[in-house]
Hints:
By secondary structure, this protein is α/β, with parallel strands linked by helices. It contains 13 helices and 12 strands. It has a 7-stranded mixed β-sheet, sandwiched between helices. It has a 3-stranded antiparallel β-sheet with strand order 9-12-11. α6 links the parallel β3 and β4. α5 packs across α6, α5 crosses α9 and α10 packs across α12. The mean pLDDT is 93.
Amino acid sequence: xxxxxxxxxxxxxxxxxxxxxxxxxxxxxxxxxxxxxxxxxxxxxxxxxxxxxxxxxxxxxxxxxxxxxxxxxxxxxxxxxxxxxxxxxxxxxxxxxxxxxxxxxxxxxxxxxxxxxxxxxxxxxxxxxxxxxxxxxxxxxxxxxxxxxxxxxxxxxxxxxxxxxxxxxxxxxxxxxxxxxxxxxxxxxxxxxxxxxxxxxxxxxxxxxxxxxxxxxxxxxxxxxxxxxxxxxxxxxxxxxxxxxxxxxxxxxxxxxxxxxxxxxxxxxxxxxxxxxxxxxxxxxxxxxxxxxxxxxxxxxxxxxxxxxxxxxxxxxxxxxxxxxxxxxxxxxxxxxxxxxxxxxxxxxxxxxxxxxxxxxxxxxxxxxxxxxxxxxxxxxxxxxxxxxxxxxxxxxxxxxxxxxxxxxxxxxx
Length: 414
């Protein structure tokens, strides 16, 4: 008798309700469509990727203890790498961080943010998120059994106290912001950290785009709250160093939280890839010497793309950092998901619907300038304006999706 023979009498197998109730990551889904279309030979102008492509030399692995790299290493992260991160925060942001007790390294900032939530939240607790917000924050909170309260994009941090309730345990900001590109000021951050602490809530700031600010306006949270009481800074090498495929991220927090993150990291990850940590320790300064000038070039490119948007009369949320623009398409008579699919399937242009980042910005689309030339970006903007003028045929989109064997997104943008 096989397992299949028992299915007529056995009860149905059940999956987790929490997982079933969260949608796939919309930006990742869009980029998967891009990969699928490219395999079909399509030349897609990719303005949906959350990264910038840098030219980074392949430094020699021969200088590393490669045999050690085959094995586990410190679950908190190699001490040498934690010290380099602490040194970087000290030299660039004036933050006195202790690499031994206040830094944890793991396999990307995304699981670290999830682990922070697991360490702080119980079912029934509440997370407050400022829109537009990176789309995984809310789903990670819900996987912890927490509820999410969204604050509109036009509400200033000084008013956040009105949105904190008795169950609020965590407030999340992305600074600089993905996708708007704005930078929160030092007084705003200190004020919000104070408000959170008085209300018994943590403030977590995702600083993944910290180097994409040229005017000195970015202030790292550990430099503003030196004792790290009630605050968490999360960062990664994905954006600033252009090494998203290596999945190395880190948290800076008070030792009591680092101890709890360490337990979670031991059970979920064990350790970040040992050989990649060694590589970063050995070549940290050399990599930055190559990437930081390219970061500056991306920010300067952003200004030129802003001029293209002005010439075309395309509005967007204000902001001067990161490699994103959040374009206002409020005049479009329809759903931005249909707009994005029409652009992708009929014009080979990939953007991300704004509803992924908040209900108050559902009439926007995210444009990333990190991977395409300015000429191709300008042509893509022309295609966007064409679709905004002519509208979208939903039946034609569905037919084309079926013909190409592509699956629609199984979710509802809030």
